[in-house]
Design a protein that fits this description.
Order of helices and strands: HEEEHEEEEEEHHEEEEEEEEHEEEEEE
Number of domains: 3
Radius of gyration: 26 Å
Strand content: 35-45%
Number of strands: 23
Largest sheet: 6 strands, antiparallel
Number of helices: 5
Structural class: mainly beta
CATH topology of the largest domain: Jelly Rolls
Helix content: 10-25%
CATH architecture of the largest domain: Sandwich
Length: 432
């Protein structure tokens, strides 16, 4: 059944907020002017027209060909700036894709700034840059320069945007030596079986000279955990902690990415139908073998086939993130779009319920779910960038629960489902 969104109330803008915005834009303009003056002395500089970046609407920045067609040995530097509080990622997606290069990975802004420099043949990577906003919106400036040598870093020209050294938190004790790989593989497989996995398999791949690579495998429908393990590299070969970047199609949904002790990591996903899934990795020892322990469990039984492979996968991921299990089909379900939606739902006195909300189309910025039953309220919201949330509640003497879904996103469509999962002890349903 479908629900109609309830009208949202507009907000008020205050003079103080307007003054803050004007001040922030002035600071951005001063920073761009200072950087432009410095870099223009070192080569051919171009300042692109400012653009408005919005979360949920990725945009591509194309650099002028004149900056990329200079001497073969020259360098191109590009700085993308917003206000200090603006958060975005920038990724080089030019015309010479390097599938095993960490240079292809997105770079997150620090203090509203990302700078990328490439020299020689590698500068062709800067022909196109993919910008993705994580702040709601903001003005973005782009300054690019071609020079015979790399220019002075933008954070040195603009020291107020330099966040300083970023180091991991100090440990409380020296790192524990790694257990032998054969033992770690056996432990990973035993752990998967204890968790109830139906199928457990072991696979391997080779890492590149940079400790990077790409793994793609055919998986059956179900929820899968892919645990990736390597031997610790030597100090001189160390490329950092092992990191994974999943590549999923529309019929699969990510549950979690786990960072381990530097030489293992794992990702968990749910697939609504058989298909190919993969991930890129970096931080592994160079020219070494990487092992993948793949385990599978069935999708929850309470997911209707009518939801399709994508809807079943996304709802399964939400349930798995919250450790919830549903065995029967939902007693109520709805499809809606962004905004607040109020849903009065008939419930049984003394029964307990699990309600879940999942994005099934578009990009979700935030999803929140709440329920009021008598004088009791339950509420929860998705984590930043998450695709769903879940709550549980029980009805005592009430026969109606007021459930509200509140969602924000770009082209967002959500799926709501309510399952009856148990009953209160006899007599407790009438207590207050």
């Amino acid at each position: 059944m479908s629900r109609a969104p309830r009208a949202a109330f507009g907000g008020l803008f205050f003079l103080g907020g307007a003054l803050c915005v004007s001040s922030a834009r002035a600071d951005l303009g001063q920073d761009v002017a200072r950087l432009t003056a410095n870099w223009s002395e070192r080569g051919t500089l171009r300042r692109l027209r400012p653009r408005l970046g919005e979360r949920g609407t990725p945009s591509v920045i194309y650099l002028p060909n004149e900056l990329l067609s200079g001497a073969a040995s020259s360098c191109v530097s590009v700085a993308v700036l917003g206000t200090n509080s603006t958060h975005f990622t920038l990724r080089a997606v030019g015309n010479s894709y390097l599938p095993d290069s960490v240079e292809d990975w997105p770079q997150a802004s620090l203090a509203g700034l990302v700078q990328i420099t490439r020299c020689g043949t590698r500068k062709s990577r800067l022909a196109a840059l993919l910008l993705e906003m994580h702040s709601p919106r903001g003005v973005i400036e782009v300054v690019a320069v071609e020079s015979s040598e790399p220019v002075q870093p933008a954070v040195e020209v603009l020291p107020q945007r330099n966040p300083g050294p970023i180091t991991p938190l100090p440990g409380l004790a020296p790192p524990i030596p790694a257990v032998a790989l054969t033992e770690r593989l056996a432990l990973a497989e035993a752990s998967a079986r204890r968790a109830g996995a139906n199928d457990v398999a072991r696979d391997s791949a080779l890492t590149s000279a940079r400790g990077t690579g790409h793994v793609r495998r055919q998986l059956e429908a179900g929820c899968h955990r892919l645990q990736v393990l390597t031997e610790p590299g030597s100090p001189e070969d160390s490329t950092g902690d092992l990191a994974l970047m999943p590549e999923l199609d529309a019929t699969a949904s990510l549950v979690s990415i786990e960072r381990g002790d530097g030489f293992d990591a794992a990702l968990t996903l749910c697939a609504g139908e058989p298909g190919s899934v993969g991930f890129r990795f970096a931080g592994a020892p160079p020219n070494a073998k990487l092992w993948v322990v793949v385990s599978r469990s069935e999708l929850p039984a309470g997911l209707p086939q009518a939801w399709g492979a994508g809807g079943r996968a996304r709802m399964a991921a939400v349930l798995m993130q919250h450790g919830a299990s549903v065995r029967e089909l939902p007693i109520d379900q709805a499809i809606g779009v962004q905004g607040p939606t109020l849903m009065p739902i008939a419930v049984e006195p003394g029964a307990c319920y699990t309600a879940a909300l999942s994005a099934v189309q578009g990009q979700a910025f935030s999803l929140a779910l709440g329920a009021r039953v008598g004088g009791t309220e339950s509420q929860n919201h998705s984590r930043l960038g998450g695709d769903g949330t879940l709550i549980s509640f029980c009805a005592r003497g009430e026969s109606v629960a007021l459930v509200e879904a509140d969602s924000r996103g770009a082209g967002l469509t959500w799926l709501f489902a309510l399952w009856q999962t148990g009953r209160l002890p006899v007599g407790e349903e009438i207590s207050r």
